[in-house]
Structures are given as structure tokens and as C-alpha cells.
Amino acid sequence: MTQSTPEAGWGSTGPGQEATVPVPGAAGSGPISHAIFRLARLHRMFAGQLLRRIGLHPGQELVMMHLWELGAQRQTDLVRLMDSDAATMTRTVRRLEQAGFVRRRPSPADKRASLIEPTAASHALRREVEQSWGRLEDLVAADLSADERTAALHTLERLEHNLVQAAADPPCADMERDRLDSGPGPADGRT
User: Fold this and answer.
1) How far, in Å, CA of 136 to CA of 46, rounded?
2) Residues 6+ apart with CB under 8 A from 82
3) What gap in Å lies between CA 140 and CA 144, rounded to an integer?
4) Would you call 116 helix, strand, or coil by DSSP?
5) Concatenated DSSP letters for 140-171?
6) C-alpha dihedral over 77, 83, 86, 90, to 10 degrees?
7) What per-residue confidence (pLDDT) applies to 172?
């Protein structure tokens, strides 16, 4: 992959390829990060198109995958499995429940908790979700050889590992906590 200069206004591209989002000069020191941003945006867009056809939004299929694999789960367990937050998971479960793909039932082990379980309607959806993910994989890795797919997966796992390590590093965690504690500043238009 070649790297364009920020002056060119476009991200790094391969032969005959053009980046879909101009790289602002300020992002010139982070070409990999900007490429991840562009890839994630396009991946989510295609996932949304494929999932919309079967009545799901991106992220909901991941919750369903965990439920199909593990069976009924407490919502707090889903938050942990998905590395999500409680508010997002509450909205996701509520929407899946309204669509008829999950139901809540009291937990036999903890009277305060309820279990989220997949419905028969969701089990009928599983094959379509698997096909959608297969199609998405085909789109993402269309021209890659088996070796290139393995190398790409390895690189992505290393990048993820780097960020997991950074999140666990106390100085990074302190910086994030300070950022959240400081609240909105002038940069976001609120004072």
C-alpha cells in the first residue's frame, strides 16, 4: 500500500484505488488511524444495508450471536460480552424485544435480575445473519488470497491488542477519566 502525502488530500491507497474520504492535514500524522476510520465507516454502512433486509441494525446481530451461542444471559453479562455500556445495551435489548427476537424472563438464581433469551423468531433469523456476515466478509476480502486474509486478520488482531493494552495502561486510563470528568469544552460548541 502506498502512502499519499497530506497535501494530496487523499488517504493511502493501493494501485488503482482512491480513498473515499479526504485526509485532512491534521490527520497526516495518523494515516493508519484514518484508514481504520474510513474502513469502519464503510464496513458499518454495508453491514447496515445487509442487516436492514432482515430487520436488524448493526450491533443487534452481535447480541443475537451471543444469545444463540450461549443461551439466555443477564443484561449485565451482555454488556460485558459486547464491551458495551448499560444504556446502549438497554436500548438494543428493548428494540430486539419489540421486534420479537428476544424476551425477558425472571432469573431463577437472582430475583432482582431477568434473563434475555432468543425467541423462536430469532432462531429462524440465524441463517440469514450468517449469510449476511458471509456476504460482508466476501465484500471486505474480495481480492485477497488466503495468505493475505490470514495476514490481514493477524494485523487487525495486533492493532486491537495494542489498543487493549493502551486502555489497560494506568496513564491512558487516567487521561480518559480526566477527559470524561472535564466535561464538554469549547471545542464541542458548549461551555
Assistant:
1) 7
2) 59, 62, 63, 66, 89
3) 9
4) strand
5) HTTT--HHHHHHHHHHHHHHHHHHHHHHHSHH
6) -80
7) 65
Confidence category of residue 70, pLDDT binned at 50, 70, 90: very high
Q: Are 36 and 159 in contact (CB under 8 A)?
A: yes
User: Cell 485532512 appears where?
Assistant: 24
Helices (H) and strands (E) in the chain, counts: 7, 3
What pLDDT does 170 receive? 74
The answer to which of 10-14, 53-57, 80-84 has the lowest mean pLDDT is: 10-14
How deeply is 12 buried, as exposed, middle or buried, from its count of CB atoms within 10 A (0-12, 13-18, 19+)?
Answer: middle
Q: Mean pLDDT lowest for which of 7-16, 66-75, 165-174?
A: 7-16
Please state the rounded mean pLDDT for residues 47-58: 94
Q: Please give the helix or strand (H or E) that residue 118 lies within, else none.
A: strand 114-118
* Distance, CA of 159 to CA of 155 (rounded, Å): 6
What pTM does this model have?
Answer: 0.73
φ/ψ bin of 102: left (φ > 0), alpha (ψ from -120 to 50), beta (otherwise): beta
Percent of the chain whose pLDDT exceeds 70: 79
3-state secondary structure of 106: strand
Contact 56, 63 (CB under 8 A): no
Length of the chain in residues, anyone? 191
